[in-house]
Design a protein that fits this description.
This protein has 309 residues and is of the alpha/beta class. It has a domain at 2-163 and 209-237 and 273-288: NAD(P)-binding Rossmann-like Domain (Rossmann fold). 42% of the residues lie in helices and 16% in strands. Helix 5 links the parallel strand 4 and strand 5 (154-160). Helix 6 (177-191) crosses helix 8 and helix 6 (177-191) crosses helix 10 (290-308). The chain is globular and about 60 Å long.
């Protein structure tokens, strides 16, 4: 089977291609100069020329809370355009099966319990990443609508919780929580600093899935897309506080300093936990512990530092 993977050079895309099951398929992994996802004609022409059997749409403009606050227009427009063009061109080109990658940002803010797929559009979004969330919601709904009006199309959406692991972004301007923590704690250790600053009071809770486990979910979707739900969360089903992530990373890195809490800084949603019952019923669950995932991610981070020297 020939699969078009958008976002092949990103964290999730890179881990999909490195997965043991990847060798079962032929992959189309065009770079931006070969396929401009922001241009519908470019996408349509590419699909007409290469005729993939399946599409995994993993491309997106992504970033942490600082980037989303700084560039809301770009996060909305770029992700909306890419998703709309890929899905509409796929439908027009007769590509029958597609797996769209959503985001847990799609869910309403200030929910204490685990977020179920039915909760989408049931309340206000988190303001710090609202643009990104709106784009992801629209594309997921478009996949659902296209499949509804054309029974020959099987377009499904997987909503991962936050991901981390090899090929993540560690630059503080763009990084999510875990790579940001790894970078900050490593730098503090190297400089002999005894205090690391944490945004907020450390009590906000987050669910992070090791990216190689997410890649396994993608392959289960490729292999059984017809039987998977139209929209399905993937994650741990439990979460940790921000401070617990700092403590776990410090243990892996070997840092024994203290922490300072800056409660003037934005922290986003107080809690964002996914209900993973649908995924479990579908036959998928995570495998990697937090400590093992952090150790692997830190090893990758060190390889980047060594490679930059």
């Amino acid at each position: 089977m020939k699969i078009l993977l958008t976002g092949a050079s990103g964290m999730l895309g890179s881990n999909i291609l490195a997965h043991p099951h990847a060798s079962r398929y032929r992959w189309l992994t065009p770079r931006r100069n070969e396929l401009n996802l922001a241009d519908y004609s470019s996408v349509f022409d590419y699909l007409q020329s290469h005729k993939p059997d399946f599409i995994v749409h993993a491309a997106g403009k992504v970033g942490g809370i600082q980037a989303n606050i700084r560039e809301p227009v770009e996060f909305l427009v770029a992700n909306l355009d890419m998703g709309r063009n890929v899905l509409m061109a796929a439908a027009a080109s007769g590509v029958g099966r597609l797996l769209n990658i959503g985001s847990s940002c799609m869910y309403p803010r200030d929910r204490e319990g685990a977020l179920s797929e039915e909760d989408i559009l049931s309340g206000p979004l988190e303001p710090t990443n609202e643009g990104y969330a709106l784009a992801k919601i629209t594309v997921a709904k478009l996949a659902e609508y296209l499949s509804r009006v054309n029974p020959e199309l099987c377009y499904k959406t997987i909503i991962p919780c936050n991901l981390y692991g090899p090929h993540d972004k560690f630059d503080p301007r763009w990084s999510h929580l875990i790579p940001s923590i790894i970078h900050k704690v490593h730098e503090a250790k190297q400089r002999g600093e005894r205090v690391v600053e944490i945004w907020g009071d450390g009590s906000a809770r987050r669910e992070f899935l090791y990216v190689k486990d997410a890649a396994s979910a993608i392959f289960r979707g490729i292999e059984s897309v017809e039987t998977m739900p139209a929209i399905s969360n993937i994650g741990l089903g439990f979460d940790y506080s921000v401070f617990e992530y700092y403590q776990a990373a410090a243990k892996v890195i070997g840092y024994d300093g203290d922490y300072k809490f800056d409660t003037t800084k934005p922290v986003g949603m107080k809690r964002k936990l996914a209900n993973v019952q649908r995924a479990q019923e579908w036959g998928w669950t995570f495998e990697t512990s937090l400590e093992d995932g952090l150790a692997s991610t830190y090893e990758y981070y060190l390889s980047l530092i060594e490679g930059a020297r």
